[in-house]
TrEMBL record:
Residues 147-233 form the Quercetin 2,3-dioxygenase C-terminal cupin domain. Residues 9-120 form the Pirin N-terminal domain. Belongs to the pirin family. It comes from Mesonia mobilis. It holds the Pfam family Pirin. This is Pirin family protein.
Length: 236
């Protein structure tokens, strides 16, 4: 088993006043040649957007984009005619493919919105752009992993153009679990949204990340109540 550990305070950081953004991997003005990606996982941004502000219309191409609201209202709009508010316990997925234009705004004039924006490199380029959003039931992630992304449209959760599986879990202190990889050629990047856990011999605290590969499974011990996101992606 190989691992790479990223402490929360080692992430790139940008403060634009209305936007405070932490970058696990190189993004915008933050560049670290040792932290460009984890396999097909290209971007993991932890964004805090002030009330009444947001990202105006901008383009994307040939990327799978997953947005996970953590607090507040994320207002989406795009050139495919999709629009509305995405809240915590909802997941938004877009396949940019041949090209999309979209905006991400704070749906509240006063309260901040906090969300994770994740980019996954697709296995196929120039696909027809598509949009999807799913509603999660919190009980489905209590002390177990809830699948939120997969490569298969008929599976639980949303789907993307990549051999990737995402799971979310909310675990109580003292719980233990084993994550079994869907594909032994993949790796898993665990991002700890909140709490404290231990994966094999490595402890993680709030907003720490750990990549694991060259293994078929690994053990997770919950040291404090924890909210975690597991992103299994191809490593080549």
């Amino acid at each position: 088993m190989k691992t790479v550990f990223h402490q929360a305070n080692s992430r790139g950081y940008a403060d634009h006043g209305w936007l405070k953004s932490y970058h696990t991997f190189s993004f915008a003005n933050y560049f670290d040649p040792e932290r460009v990606n984890f396999g097909a996982l290209r971007v993991l941004n932890d964004d805090h957007v002030a009330g009444g502000m947001g990202f105006s219309k901008h383009p994307h191409k040939n990327m799978e984009i997953i947005s996970i609201p953590l607090a507040g209202d994320l207002k989406h709009g795009d050139n495919m005619g999709n629009g509305g508010i995405i809240e915590p316990n909802q997941i938004q997925v877009m396949s940019a493919g041949t090209g999309i234009v979209h905006s991400e705004l704070n749906g509240s004039a006063h309260d901040p919105v906090k969300f994770l924006q994740i980019w996954v490199i697709p296995h196929t380029e120039e696909v027809t752009p598509r949009y999807d959003e799913i509603q999660l039931n919190a009980k489905d992630s209590k002390n177990k992993f809830q699948q939120i992304v997969s490569p298969n449209p008929e599976d639980e959760g949303a789907w993307i153009h990549q051999n990737a599986w995402f799971h979310i879990g909310r675990f109580e202190k003292g719980e233990q679990n084993t994550y079994q990889l869907q594909d032994s050629n993949n790796g898993v990047y665990t991002f700890l949204i909140d709490g404290k856990i231990k994966i094999e011999d490595q402890e993680l605290s709030k907003r720490d990340g750990l990549g694991v590969w060259e293994t078929s499974a690994f053990n997770i011990e919950i040291l404090e109540d924890a909210h975690l996101l597991l992103m299994e992606v191809p490593m080549n």
